[in-house]
Each structure stands twice: as C-alpha cells, then as structure tokens.
Specification:
The protein is built from 5 helices and 5 strands; from the N terminus they run βαβαβαβαβα. It is an alpha/beta fold. The chain has a single domain, classed as Response regulator (Rossmann fold), CATH 3.40.50. Strands 2-1-3-4-5 form a 5-stranded parallel β-sheet, with helices on both faces. The model has no long low-confidence stretch (mean pLDDT 87). One of its GO terms (biological process) is phosphorelay signal transduction system. GO terms for molecular function: DNA binding. It holds the Pfam family Response_reg.
Length: 123
C-alpha cells in the first residue's frame, strides 16, 4: 500500500484529505507542522507528501529543503497545497526543490487533487 503524509496546520484540511485518501486505499498519516512532517516523512518512508507552505515551527519550504538534503528525501514525491499565491521568491524556492505540483487550496477541487495523487502514485 502506498503511504501518504499530509502536512498541514489546519486540522480540517488534514482530516478531510486523510479521510478521502484513506477511502481510496492509501495509508495516510498527518503532521501539523514541518518539523513533525519531516520526522514522519523520513521515519515512515512516505511515497508522497502533500505539503502546506505556511505553518508554525517549521514552514513547508524549510521542510522541503531539509527533506531534499536527506538521501531518502531526494526522490520523495511532494505536492504543495497552500493558501499562498506563489510570488517570485516562493516559486524560486519551491521549484528549486522539485515538487510534483503547486496548487492553491481555493483553486483546486478535491476531486482534481485526488486524481493528481492517483496519477503521481500510478494507481
């Protein structure tokens, strides 16, 4: 079974994503900040991380940079899902760390996100 980690400080977002993804047969765990997310991604060997950008303790960009510095994390698939409109500085930082996609939460339907997850994990 494919393992997905949802890293988002909004409990309602994390819960909805976890419920929907679990219902599709994925093993899902959640983390409320980048520090916990980094630990879980490495310890659980997640197949995919769905990552918010703006979070307490460690933001998503710092988590992504730290993840990419780890041997295992270099190839980990990451989808950014954020409320932040990407500006030039965010885009530069995000794409330097090779995510699969960057979605604005308000601009993507849940069904489209789930379809992208299936596509990325080839199910």
């Amino acid at each position: 079974m494919k393992k997905i980690l949802v890293v988002d400080d909004e409990p309602s977002v994390a819960r909805v994503l976890a419920d929907e993804l679990s219902g599709r047969g994925y093993v899902v765990s959640t983390a409320a900040n980048g520090k916990l997310g980094l630990e879980k991604a490495i310890n659980e060997r997640s197949d995919l991380v769905i990552l918010d950008v703006k979070m307490p303790v460690m933001d998503g960009l710092a988590m992504l940079e730290s993840l990419r510095s780890q041997e295992f994390g270099k190839e980990m698939k990451v989808i950014i899902l954020s409320n932040l409109e990407p500006d030039d500085s965010i885009i530069t930082k995000v794409y330097a760390n090779l995510p699969i996609a960057y979605f604005i939460k308000s601009d993507i339907a849940l069904a489209d996100l789930l379809e992208k997850v299936d596509e990325v994990l080839q199910v």
